[in-house]
Amino acid sequence: MGRLTPDVPQLRAMKVRGEKIAMLTAYDYPAARLLDEAGVDVLLVGDSLGMVVLGYPDTTLVTMDEMVHHTRAVARGATRALILGDMPYRSYETPELALENARRLIEAGAHAVKLEGGTARVPQIRALVAAGIPAMAHIGMMPQNVRLEGGYRIKGKTPEQAEALIADAAAVQAAGAFGILIELVVPEVARRITASVNIPTVGIGAGADCDGQVLVLHDLIGLFPWFTPKFAKPRARVAEDIRKAVAGYIEATKSPTKAL
Question: Residue 107 catalytic?
Answer without folding.
Answer: no
